[in-house]
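Schema walk-through. Below, the input block comes first and the output block second. Nothing else is stored per chain. Lengths vary across the set, and this one has 198 residues.
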Amino acid sequence: MLHSPTPPAPALDVLAHHHTRPVHWVATACAMAAVIAGGGLLQPDRATGATPGPTAASGPPAPAPDAHAVTYPLDCKGAPQAVTDTAEGDLDGDGNPETVAAVRCDAGSGTPPHAIYVLARDGQQGAAPRVVATLLDAARRQTATGLTVSDRTVTARLLGYSSPSVPRYSPDVKQLAKWRWTGGKFRQELTDSAATRV
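--- output ---
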């Protein structure tokens, strides 16, 4: 019957290196202290409750909402709605652009008044755009031109009428309107010119 060979006994000088000495314990303790200290420096950021801005990991911002893909809260009495002007920009500073749309009823004749709406999309990918604010109500009977967004401010020139006797085809009042998102809502700055013929 064959037997496995017995391994040779280790030499005495090899065994001498297997004894632990105080210097080994000190080196181990120093290494552990360094690991613990390093872990303390690499703590996650404290939660602040603030919405983080866009980062490279989150990808590019969503495109601005399509103004022609929305039904507006504008009563046209059966006539279609017409988007006559749009502007895009990040109005609330969240890194995603909003769309501002000037909309009126497509009556076929005359000059129906405008309404101005702000559109945004929910955070989910592919979410439909929706109206989040009305900057100008059509009940004010004004026409909007020159709609722009710059420096988180919406600007438009508004044409109106100084009295009911002024013909609807000849507005005689000019106003420069600016809206800026401040304190959780849009605040309007309106510069009213003297009533003059346009």
